[in-house]
Amino acid sequence: MADVGNGTIGFTVNQGEPIRVLPVEEAEKGLYYHSNLDQNIAVIMRTIYIFKSESKGNEDAVEVVKNGLSKILVHHYPLAGRLTISSEGKFIVDCTGEGVVFVEVEADCGLDEIGDITKPDPNILGKLVYEIPAAQNLLQIPLLVIQVTKFKCGGFSIGMSMNQCMLDGIAVMEFVNGWGEVTRGLPLKTPPFLDKTMLKPRNPPTIEFQHHEFDEIEDISNTNMLYEEEEMAYKSFLFDSDKLGRLKEQAIEDGALSKCTTFQVFAGFVWRARCKALNLVPGQKTKLLFAVDGRQRFIPQLPQGFAGNGIVLTYSMSTAGELVNKPLSFAVGLIKEAVKLVTTDSFMRSAIDYFEVTRAKPSLDGTVLITNWSKLSFYTMDFGWGEPISSGPVALLRKQVLIFLPHHKDKKNICLLLGLHVSAMNAFEHLM
User: Fold this and answer.
1) Which CA distances in Å does 126 have to 5, 119, 149, 157?
2) How far apart are alpha carbons 352 and 348 in whole angstroms?
3) Which of 144, 148, 145, 142 is nearest to 64 (CA)?
C-alpha cells in the first residue's frame, strides 16, 4: 500500500492498488444513448457515505461492498462502460464492460478525527475519494470510481466519484439504495429503466421559448477579480424548520404572495444574501439557476426508476439592486415564476431542442446555481452496517454552485453549503 496522506492536515491513509470490478454476469455491449439533458452536466461529483455499527466491525466491509457492486452493475451495466464522443459530437457511453475502478484504503485514525464532513473540504475529504492520476479530460475518467476506507474505530466510508451525465440526484439515490439491497441479498425495490430515447429531440427541433438560462452575463461588479485576489472559504449553515417557517412568514407578510414552498423561500433568501455579501453594483444582472424534476411533468411521464437525467434547468433573472432593495417576496415571486416554466412538457422539450440546435451550455458568470438535494434519501442506504451516520459532497464543483442538503434524516431541516471569497463569506455569515 502507498502512503498518500499529509500529516499536517489531519490524518494519513494507506492506499491499495486500484482494481476493476466487473458485473457478476455478462452485460450488454455497444453504444448507450445519452439525451441532451445528460450533455449539460458532464461533471464529476464526489460524495462520501460513512458507516459505523455498534455490533459489527469493518473487517469484511471491503469484500462485502465490492461483491455487492458487481451485482448492482448487472442492472446498471452502462456504469461499467466508458465515456466517448458520438458521430454527432456528443457524449455517449461505450458499454465495454471494462468495469468500475475500486480502491481499498486504510486510515490511521478513527472517524471522530476526520472532523465534520458536512463542510466541504477537499484537503481532508479528498483523501476518502480516489482520483484517477494524470487524467487529462472526462473521457479518461471512468464513469464510476469507488473507494472504501476503513478506520481504526471499526467504521468505514464509501467514497463515490460519478460522472453526473449518467444519473441525476434522484437516480443516484436509487442506484446506491439498490446497491445496498443486492448487497444484503434483497431484490431491487426500484429496478433501473435505462432507455432514454424518449428524451430525443424532436424532428425538426422546435424552440418554443426564450431560454435565458443559457445567457451570458457581464461581470460589471468585478467579482471574478475578487476571487483571484482572495482565498476561498467554505462553510455550512443549518436552517431548522422554525427558521424556515419564519422565512415563509416574512415572504408573505407584505401580501404580494399568498404562499410559497420551503425551497422557493430559502432559495430567494440565499440568492439575496449572496448578492448583498458580494456587494454587487445595483445594475449588475444576476441569474439564479436551479433544476426541476421533470419525471412526472413530461408527456408521457418518465417511467419509475428512470436511470438518467430527468431534470430540467430553469432560471430567474434580476438586477442586484432590485433583488437587494425589494422585499423577500420579490425574489421568491421570481422563483415561483421559474418553477411555472417547467410545469409544461413543451418547455422541457424546447430546452432539449435548444441544445440540439445551439449546443449551448449554461453560462455561470453572474450566476448562482443551486443544487437542491434536500429531499434526497442520503440516509436510507444499508450495506449490512445500518444506515449512514453521515454523508455529503467532498467539494463544491464551482464557486457559483451552492448545495441544499438534508440535515441527517430530518428533511424538514436544510443544510446550506457554499463557498465565497473570505471577505464576502464574513458578510454572508453575518446575514445568516
Assistant:
1) 10, 12, 12, 12
2) 6
3) 148
Residue type, 396: L
- Residue-wise pLDDT for 83-140, tens only, equals 999 999 999 999 999 999 999 999 999 998 887 777 767 778 889 999 999 888 999 9
Q: How many CA atoms lie within 13 A of 429 on its CB side?
A: 12
Cα-based distances in Å from 359 to 43, 73, 144, 342 = 16, 31, 25, 20
Q: Which long-range contacts (CB under 8 A, 24 or more apart) does 259-262 make?
A: 260/332, 260/336, 262/414
CA 101 to chain centre: 20
**Going by C-beta distance under 8 Å and a sequence separation of 6 or more, which residues neighbour residue 325?**
282
Report the alpha-carbon distance of residue 185 to residue 68 in Å, rounded. 9
- 260: which 3 cell numbers? 410559497
Contact 169, 370 (CB under 8 A): no
User: What grid cell was written down for 48?
Assistant: 462520501
**pTM (two decimals):** 0.92
Give pLDDT, residue 395: 80
* CA–CA distance, 322 with 127 (Å, rounded to integer): 43
Provide, rounded to the nearest whole percent, the portion of the chain with pLDDT above 70. Answer: 96
User: Which helix (H) or strand (E) element contains residue 404?
Assistant: strand 401-407
With 70 as the cut, is the pLDDT of residue 3 above it?
A: no
In the chain, the N- to C-terminal Cα span, in Å, equals 45
Hey, what amino acid is at 105?
A: V
